UniProtKB/TrEMBL annotation:
Stretches assigned to the Response regulatory domain: 7-121
Organism placement in taxonomy: Bacteria, Bacillati, Bacillota, Clostridia, Lachnospirales
Chain residues forming the annotated DNA-binding region: 135-234
Alphabetized UniProt keyword annotations: DNA-binding, Phosphoprotein, Transcription, Transcription regulation
Organism: Blautia celeris
Protein name: Stage 0 sporulation protein A homolog
């Protein structure tokens, strides 16, 4: 499981805010977003979907987030981030004192929310994971890519990759065979969302294809998932 495979449950009765946050998370690369507008429906979805993170509002129509927090904690130690319009220090301290993983107040910056979500998920689920040693060489048909030297070699002739092309290819290779969303690629390469980088990303993909594809006009290795992102094709027989 990678970070973007994590299920996120958002419990808030503000439909407009729920839509905005869901959009932010989806654009960032998260695929499994669940929502609920009350304590009762939130608990129901929680028990059914078993999310890896809960974003919980304090003011709900049939109760308060603090009480629901305790009920969720009776079921699991899933990380919970309080999201509230109440900025009083007492509420913040009370929520954190209950054992919440973080507390953010409305209004908030989208990037701040994402940074806090990433920090929680990485700390809880990935800090103790031993990551596989990064590959040094990538084979694509007749071409060989050296990640150490940032070079593509075919039939004894080598061409160099730019720093951004190298980051882009590494990101695709880390998820080889799977779709990597536009936003996830831009986060890895430019540390920013896809918005504003649409043309820049297309240009980098085109240049990268010119270096690794037999026929860049009919790409085999870097495949386009229309409206979603790109996928790096696996070698035949590769799992």
């Amino acid at each position: 499981m990678n970070l973007y495979d994590c299920k996120i449950l958002l419990i808030d009765d503000n439909a407009e805010l729920v839509s905005i946050i869901s959009g932010i998370l989806t654009k960032s690369g998260f695929e499994s977003i669940y929502t609920a507008g009350s304590c009762s429906s939130g608990l129901e979805v929680f028990l059914k979907e078993e999310p890896q993170l809960v974003i919980l509002d304090i003011m709900l129509p049939d109760g308060d987030g603090f009480t629901l927090f305790r009920r969720l904690r009776e079921q699991s130690q899933v990380p919970i981030l309080f999201l509230s319009a109440r900025d009083e220090d007492n509420d913040r301290l009370f929520g954190l004192g209950l054992g919440a993983d973080d507390y953010i107040t409305k209004p908030f910056l989208p990037q701040e929310l994402l940074l806090r979500i990433h920090a929680i998920l990485k700390r809880v689920y990935f800090s103790s994971v031993q990551l596989p040693k990064e590959e040094k060489v990538l084979i694509m048909g007749k071409r060989e890519v050296s990640f150490e030297n940032a070079q593509v070699t075919a039939e004894g002739i080598s061409v160099s990759l730019t720093a951004k092309e190298l980051l882009l290819l590494k990101k695709l290779n880390q998820n080889r065979g799977k779709i990597v969303t536009f936003d996830a690629i831009c986060q890895a390469v430019w540390e920013d969302s896809y918005y504003g980088y649409e043309n820049t990303l297309m240009v980098h993909i085109r240049h990268l294809r010119e270096k690794i594809e037999e026929d860049p006009s009919h790409p085999v290795w870097i495949q386009t998932a229309r409206g979603l992102g790109y996928r790096l094709k696996k070698e035949e027989g590769q799992r």
